[in-house]
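Task 17 of the worksheet. Students: predict the tertiary structure of the chain below and write it out as structure tokens. Keep your answer in the requested format; marks are given for formatting as well as content.
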Amino acid sequence: LAVQDNSADIHVANVWNKSVGSQDYVVAVVDEGVDVEHQDLKDNMWVNKGEIPGNGIDDDNNGYIDDVNGWNAYDSNGTLIPSRHGTHVAGIVGARGNNQKDVTGVNWNVKIMGVGASSATTSVVLEGYGYVLAQKKRWLESKGQYGANVVATNSSFGVDRARCENGDYRLWNDVYTAMGEVG
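Model answer:
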């Protein structure tokens, strides 16, 4: 794949010759939400195997009710909003490739965790990233039996010139630091 502007060309075809990703890794897409039923995403959506969908119970005792594919920090529940932007971003990250459907992501095989938290409201952002952090810690503590092996996050907040040492952004910095410390 190449684009007109060579500075934006990521040479993904060269990468695909070596790897198309791995289902062992999770990327948390922190946005408005993700359409978990999209035909190019549904097979790559992360699934919390310890949770029973829609029963209103925290089946896996992780502190989050019905968090089957991620967390909606706007409403503090497991119901992800099928946002156009978040779905688009998730598609870039990991739409299933080589399946004769719509699009192909950079990683054909990767798990996508949806996190509704793209906001300028610090409490929403912290709850969303707190969820990501909790799932990674759970994965590490259980030696991969529970939680998620989150290796990257993506956010499209659109906050211009946010400096982590100013105002509430210091709290954002703290959660970013905590995520980095657990890998």
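Marker's comment: The mean pLDDT is 90. The first strand starts at residue 21 and ends at 31.
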